[in-house]
């Protein structure tokens, strides 16, 4: 019997032509992006038009849809694809990653399980990533989730499970209701907001976070951590996890991972490292020593969509002991199948999610394209650019660094020569400068705050970033800054 006429079947037959059109549009986008305005905010009238577009009774034509997306959506991306976008800690998408993602959606495979090609590619990628981060290979695994927040949540769920089990509670059966001790999570006061959200989501309440004070380089203090844990144990509380930072969002600071690992090992407390941004710094010989102890953590979060040029979204969680993860999550009703092998485990046994996108193709393709040497070159180059910007700022008499440069992040502010205004006015000046740069389309660099002072924050993340970007940025800031403060 002939299948009924269907627009989707029509498109399948016309796929080559349609795909070529889309490829042409994508190519033009990537080619012209560097010359355009960095932050393109969608005009009000167009927002209205898009928001109010009705669902057509009769399907639109495929070409009409492609035209709509080309004309009304594509010109308004996030700035992160542009080399002069310094605000987000997200890298631009590797072109090969974009193409591999297209193949992944063509296959329509999911990351829950089953012996499809993506699961075995994930197994390979999982090993590559553990090797890259010098993480143990035995009984360990890598999960690819939506990002740093999802990875942190997965890790802390398992940490909570382990702490409860060790204390004699069956948390999967009885939940938190049965636990009469206060469960605590320790993390730097510089931790990313996702840690608090995770702790809240896990039902522990934000008040169960012990914020570890930091030193003058924004690193959490190990001596304080040890004291806090001892005090809490004496009070009968139940430490669940310690979260160390490998590259804080604000300043790129790396907590003393070895000391944290010693403290956790002595007391058998879960050590989770949030290296969503900074973990790839291990590839830079200058940071290798500080990041080598990643291997001692129970779990490590890092985001291929941050520093490894993988198109969003992709967070990776390195898991030291996959058996505990399975114990915390696996649930196999009759309508599902259990499966997987040691080197190609089925992810749904190890996380909350069942059906979710197969991120292995785009991530594998990006890493394969760069190779270990290409990845190292990028990481080293970005760190060097940050250092160079830091040096240039220190040499200048109208800028000041507000935090030591760490990894590829630089926090600084413009301070006019012989400044005699107030701190509040200086804060306002940073915001005005940031807004002006965005308005003129020259760069994108939002503000942040260091020790109560508003700052400009630059993070190098683009595979085409060079020293010229630093010259451009400094000229820009000085020109606008001088004009605004004269
Ligand atoms: C250190 C750190 N952890 C977690 C996150 C959250 O990652 P995501 O936005 O992928 O959920 C970020 C995001 O910037 C981060 O910098």
Describe this structure in words.
With 486 residues, this protein is α/β, with parallel strands linked by helices. The chain has a 7-stranded mixed beta sheet, with helices on both faces. Strands 8-9-11-10 form a 4-stranded antiparallel beta sheet. It has 17 helices and 11 strands. Among the domains are: 14-82; 100-369, Aspartate Aminotransferase, domain 2 (3-Layer(aba) Sandwich), CATH 3.40.640. The mean pLDDT is 96. Helix 9 links the parallel strand 2 and strand 3 (209-212). Pyridoxal-5'-phosphate (PLP) binds at residues 89, 147-149, 192, 194, 249, 274, 276-277, 303, 315.
Short note summarizing the structure:
This protein is α/β, with parallel strands linked by helices.
List the ligand species. pyridoxal-5'-phosphate
Total E-strand runs: 11
Helix content: 40-55%
Multimer state: single chain
The average pLDDT score comes to 96
Rounded to the nearest angstrom, the distance between the terminal CA atoms is: 80 Å
CATH-defined superfamily of the domain at 100-369: Type I PLP-dependent aspartate aminotransferase-like (Major domain)
State the strand order across the main sheet. Answer: 1-7-6-5-4-2-3
Largest sheet: 7 strands, mixed
Radius of gyration: 24 Å
So what's the overall shape?
Answer: globular
Query: If you consult CATH, what is the topology of the domain at 100-369?
Result: Aspartate Aminotransferase, domain 2
Q: What's the CATH architecture of the domain at 100-369?
A: 3-Layer(aba) Sandwich
Helix tally equals: 17
């Amino acid at each position: 019997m002939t299948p009924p006429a269907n627009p989707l079947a029509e498109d399948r037959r016309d796929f080559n032509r349609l795909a070529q059109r889309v490829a042409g549009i994508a190519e033009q986008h990537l080619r012209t992006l560097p010359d355009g305005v960095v932050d393109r905010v969608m005009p009000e009238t167009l927002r209205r038009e898009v928001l109010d577009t009705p669902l057509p009774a009769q399907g639109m034509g495929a070409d009409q849809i492609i035209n709509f997306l080309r004309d009304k959506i594509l010109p308004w991306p996030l700035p992160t694809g542009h080399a002069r976008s310094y605000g987000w800690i997200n890298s631009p998408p590797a072109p090969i990653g974009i193409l591999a993602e297209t193949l992944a959606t063509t296959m329509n495979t999911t990351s829950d399980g089953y012996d499809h090609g993506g699961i075995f590619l994930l197994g390979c990628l999982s090993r590559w990533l553990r090797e890259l981060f010098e993480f143990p290979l035995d009984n360990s695994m890598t999960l690819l989730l939506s990002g740093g927040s999802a990875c942190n949540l997965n890790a802390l769920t398992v940490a909570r499970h382990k702490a409860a089990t060790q204390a004699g509670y069956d948390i999967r059966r009885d939940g938190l209701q049965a636990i009469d001790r206060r469960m605590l999570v320790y993390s730097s006061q510089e931790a990313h907001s996702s840690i608090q959200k995770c702790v809240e989501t896990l039902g522990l309440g934000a008040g169960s976070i012990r914020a570890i004070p930091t030193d003058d380089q924004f690193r959490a203090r190990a001596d304080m951590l040890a004291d806090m844990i001892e005090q809490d144990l004496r009070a009968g509380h139940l430490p669940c996890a310690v979260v160390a930072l490998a590259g804080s969002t604000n300043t790129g600071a790396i907590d003393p991972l070895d000391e944290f690992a010693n403290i956790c090992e002595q007391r058998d407390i879960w050590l989770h490292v949030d290296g969503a941004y900074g973990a790839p710094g291990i590839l830079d010989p200058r940071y290798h020593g500080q990041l080598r102890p990643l291997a001692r953590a129970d779990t490590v979060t890092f985001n291929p969509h941050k520093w490894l040029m993988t198109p969003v979204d992709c967070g990776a969680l390195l898991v030291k002991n996959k058996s505990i993860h399975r114990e915390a999550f696996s649930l196999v009703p009759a309508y599902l199948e259990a499966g997987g092998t040691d080197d190609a485990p089925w992810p749904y046994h190890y996380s909350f999610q069942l059906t979710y996108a197969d991120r292995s193709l785009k991530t594998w393709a990006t890493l394969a394209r760069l190779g270990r040497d290409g990845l190292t070159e990028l990481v080293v180059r970005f760190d060097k650019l940050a250092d160079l910007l830091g040096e240039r700022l220190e040499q200048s008499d109208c800028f000041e660094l507000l935090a030591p440069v760490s990894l590829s992040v630089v926090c600084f502010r413009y301070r006019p020569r012989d400044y005699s205004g107030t701190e509040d006015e200086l804060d306002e000046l940073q915001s005005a400068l940031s807004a002006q740069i965005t308005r003129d389309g020259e760069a994108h660099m939002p503000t942040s705050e260091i020790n109560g002072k508003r700052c400009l924050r630059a993070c190098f993340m683009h595979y085409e970033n060079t020293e010229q970007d630093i010259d451009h940025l400094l000229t820009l800031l000085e020109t606008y800054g001088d004009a605004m403060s004269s």
